[in-house]
Amino acid sequence: MSILIKNAYIATMDKDGTSEIPNGFLLIEDNLISQIGDNSNGAADKIAADKGIGKVIDAEGAILMPGLSNTHTHLGMTLLRGYADDMALKDWLEKQIWPAEANLTAEDVYWGSLLGCLEMIRSGTTAFCDMYFFMDETAKAVEKAGIRGCLSYGMIEFGDAEKGTKELAVNEKLVSDWQGKANGRITTMFGPHAPNTCSQAFIARAKEAAEKAGVGVHIHVLETEAELNYMKENFDMCSVHHLDAVDFWNTSKVPVLAAHCVWMSDGDIKLFAEKGVTVSHNPISNMKLASGIAPIQKMLDAGVIVALGTDGCASNNNLSLFEEMKTAALLQKVGTMDPTALPAKAVVEMATVSGAQVIDKQTGVLKTGGKADMILVDVNKANAAPIFDVYSHLVYAAAGSDVKTMIVDGKILMEDYNVLVMDEEEVMKKAKECAYSLAERAKQKE
Ligand SMILES: O=c1[nH]cnc2c1ncn2[C@@H]1O[C@H](CO)[C@@H](O)[C@H]1O
Ligand SMILES: [Zn+2]
């Protein structure tokens, strides 16, 4: 189906082309953007008539921009939203989250993932990178929801080689079953959990498997000072250098996605810049668990690719990248005591272009030939009057709930606030049932 969007304020996020078109149009044919341009001379209506376009969206009063990419999630954790708060990472995982997760079923993860997809559609996220369990279920949810998902299985090996072999087999099956499915909307990665929950040898095996399969790797790294201290005590070096010793950060064959990266030294940052690692910055989770402030401005200055992520819903507690963008900017300013740190446009780039680097390089900007993944942000709202600068509006004043329309891979998933791909009431009902029953089962086992 062809779709023509007209009268939009377009923020293309394309560094090589026109970055803003105040009265623009965009034409989608199949799943690709076939034309984008100025509409002040009424070009759109002529195209619609000439081509006999059936679907025309009048985007007067809306910003048209690339969809946002959430580069670090544990989607099934929507069920644990608010399950355990106000704790440090180690206690939070060991005393609350892992015992609860031990009771998870495939059905739980399906409804939790679908709820996550719904929340992402409603807040402008068209693509995400996930690391969790029962990933077939998340894949099915992504297939149904119509968004883009880059899925990894969270492998935790705890230095047990036999367990490691089993974990790798699970992730390998995910890759062989789902890579490229749903017209390429589903891609996969290997997900060794973290340098303090997996051995160096195991993480090296995971990287090898990823390179063999031609897919990326997704890992937590230097999230807490406790991890840094643990690595120093046991290996006399930080996580980054410990894994560099097995060439883990080499991105010449496959992308490497590192979540959190709070406790990075200047040397670590230089290494990530040279290697081309993508960092997923999760400011809200890092603040909530009091993990610290990642040196993002330093990373950007050094040339590191930095994207944004929410982390799981149990440490955030939502999936809104609009909140994440604002928090990223504010936290960096107060952390460096420099109000010029992480300006608005740089933050929007993190959430769009930079995130797309590891998910699908044909997305993340609006340009001819690119895949048609985009959103309309409603600016016919009190919090959007006036707008002097589109990036300032998106980062400091807008909210996820201002997103009114979403198109992914040329298909409309939400139009004028109506979600077209699932029964919202049913998804919320089932997810709540799963969540309360999971909590009940976890409590009984205590
Ligand atoms: O911020 C975090 N740091 C480390 N682990 C996390 C965080 N959030 C969630 N998980 C845990 O990572 C595993 C994913 O497969 C899950 O056990 C999830 O609870
Ligand atoms: Zn995480």
UniProtKB/TrEMBL annotation:
A Pfam family recorded for this sequence: Amidohydro_1
Superkingdom of source: Archaea
Note describing how the cofactor binds: Binds 1 zinc ion per subunit.
Keywords: Hydrolase, Metal-binding, Zinc
Binding site for substrate: 101, 193, 223, 311
Catalytic activity: adenosine + H2O + H(+) = inosine + NH4(+); S-methyl-5'-thioadenosine + H2O + H(+) = S-methyl-5'-thioinosine + NH4(+); S-adenosyl-L-homocysteine + H2O + H(+) = S-inosyl-L-homocysteine + NH4(+); 5'-deoxyadenosine + H2O + H(+) = 5'-deoxyinosine + NH4(+)
Cofactor: Zn(2+)
Pathway the protein takes part in: Amino-acid biosynthesis; S-adenosyl-L-methionine biosynthesis
Single GO term (MF): S-adenosylhomocysteine deaminase activity
EC number(s) per entry: 3.5.4.41, 3.5.4.31, 3.5.4.4, 3.5.4.28
Binding residues annotated for Zn(2+), in chain numbering: 72, 74, 220, 311
Residue span(s) of domain Amidohydrolase-related: 63-413
Group of enzyme by EC: hydrolase
Protein family membership: Belongs to the metallo-dependent hydrolases superfamily. MTA/SAH deaminase family.
Matches recorded under PANTHER family: AMIDOHYDROLASE-RELATED DOMAIN-CONTAINING PROTEIN, AMINOHYDROLASE SSNA-RELATED
Other comments on record: SAH is a product of SAM methyltransferases and is known to be a feedback inhibitor of these enzymes. As a result of this inhibition, organisms have evolved efficient enzymes to metabolize SAH via different pathways. The pathway found in methanogens differs from the canonical pathway, it uses the deamination of S-adenosyl-L-homocysteine to form S-inosyl-L-homocysteine for the regeneration of SAM from S-adenosyl-L-homocysteine. 5'-deoxyadenosine is a radical SAM enzyme reaction product which strongly inhibits radical SAM enzymes.
Annotated function: Catalyzes the deamination of three SAM-derived enzymatic products, namely 5'-deoxyadenosine, S-adenosyl-L-homocysteine, and 5'-methylthioadenosine, to produce the inosine analogs. Can also deaminate adenosine. The preferred substrate for this enzyme is 5'-deoxyadenosine, but all these substrates are efficiently deaminated. Likely functions in a S-adenosyl-L-methionine (SAM) recycling pathway from S-adenosyl-L-homocysteine (SAH) produced from SAM-dependent methylation reactions.
NCBIfam families per UniProt: PRK06038.1
Subunit structure of this chain's protein: Homotetramer.
Annotated protein name in UniProt: 5'-deoxyadenosine deaminase
Organism: Methanimicrococcus hacksteinii
